[in-house]
Design goal:
Blueprint (H helix, E strand, L loop, with lengths): L5 H20 L6 E2 H9 L1 H5 L5 H8 L1 H4 L6 E2 L1 H13 L4 H7 L7 H9 L1 H4 L9 H26 L1 E5 L12 E5 L7
Antiparallel strand pairs: 1-2, 3-4
């Protein structure tokens, strides 16, 4: 996730849904109905050039939830509400699972978001938004740097036994020496 920007996930999902809706809704004079959506998904040449069937499949599987006025047609306003929800509230674990790969993020990044979803969802609302994902990324980088610094400090510390020489001002038989980067000892 080192080169991952949290906004790319959400922008990719929004672009995929809006572009898929635009392509599909312009194909049918009676709008994007469940029947038209099913018909379009069975024609592999229609969606292959855009984003594949992932976003169309999402629209199909969630048609009943998205069709807020229950008129049997997905309007641009209804899809716009979904896009607003993705932009403001974020994505559920299921949405990251089904839409993440087509949003342009790597499979590794998608897997990390899914595996650490509960850690990222700091307000525990069942959604992760761009801010929560970005905060998790930054926190992970900070923890990784702390580990590297700790390991470096441990590797650069030498423990040696003191001697019985009475001229030594040390009162311990153990002494520590901080090694410099250029020390070979």
């Amino acid at each position: 996730m080192a080169n991952f920007s949290a906004s790319s996930l959400f922008a990719g999902v929004n672009a995929g849904i809006s572009n898929s809706y635009a392509v599909l809704s312009n194909m049918y004079s009676d709008g994007l109905t469940r029947k038209n959506l099913t018909k379009a998904m069975s024609n592999s040449s229609i969606l292959t050039s855009t984003y594949g069937t992932t976003f169309a499949s999402y629209l199909s599987q969630n048609f009943g939830k998205l069709d807020k006025n229950s008129d049997g047609t997905l309007s641009s306003g209804e899809v716009g509400k979904l896009l607003d929800q993705v932009s403001t509230r974020g994505l559920t674990r299921e949405q990251v699972t089904s839409l993440g790969a087509m949003s342009g993020i790597s499979a590794n990044t998608q897997s990390t978001i899914i595996d650490h979803f509960n850690d990222m969802d700091t307000n525990h609302d069942g959604y992760v938004n761009s801010g929560e994902v970005q905060a998790y990324i930054l926190q992970s980088k900070l923890e990784n740097q702390k580990t590297k610094d700790r390991d470096r400090m441990i590797n650069r510390t030498s423990l040696f036994y003191g001697d019985d020489d009475k001229d030594d001002k040390s009162t311990s038989l153990l002494s520590y020496k901080w090694l410099q980067d250029d020390d070979n000892s």
